[in-house]
Amino acid sequence: QVNLVESGGGLVQAGGSLRLSCAASEAISSVLTMGWYRQASGKGRELVARVRNDGSTEYLDSVKGRFTIAGDYAKTTVVLQMNSLKPEDTAVYYCNLYSWGKGRDYWGQGTQVTVSS
């Protein structure tokens, strides 16, 4: 059973920074994308940022210019650097990997990010 282990969440004041990290407990073959989703209380889960194995990235419009995603496909790790945090960034953040070889998604357990005003 492969697990994705997340770290780096917490409480920060508006304007502050946090760095989320995610690592797979064992190697996963044929990973196509690695990314971060978030789910605020009472809302659906949304894609925050994703990096493909060709290095291309995509971001939620509201985080562009503030968040940066980086993935290491050799180590199956992904980090999300979050700067200039806003109260509306408050949510549970989930790490996600998609393996085309396995034909499935892998999810982390979630880490809480709380931004106070």
Number of helices: 0
SSE arrangement, N to C: EEEEEEEEEEE
- What overall form do the CA principal axes indicate? globular
Mean pLDDT: 96
| Structural Rg | 14 Å
- Give the terminus-to-terminus CA distance: 40 Å
Pairing-aware structural class of the strands and helices?
mainly beta
Care to count the β-strands?
Answer: 11
Contiguous low-pLDDT stretches (5 residues minimum) are none
Give the percentage of residues in beta strands: over 45%
Percent of residues in helices comes to under 10%
Largest sheet: 7 strands, mixed
Mind explaining what this structure looks like?
This protein has 117 residues and is mostly beta strands. It contains no helices and eleven strands. The chain has strands at residues 4-7, 10-13, 18-24, 31-39, 45-52, 57-59, 67-72, 77-82, 91-99, 104-107, 111-116. Strands 2, 4, 5, 6, 9, 10 and 11 form a seven-stranded mixed β-sheet that branches. A four-stranded antiparallel β-sheet has the order 1-3-8-7, with no helix packed on it. Strand 7 (67-72) and strand 8 (77-82) form a beta hairpin. It is globular and about 45 Å long. 32% of the residues are buried.
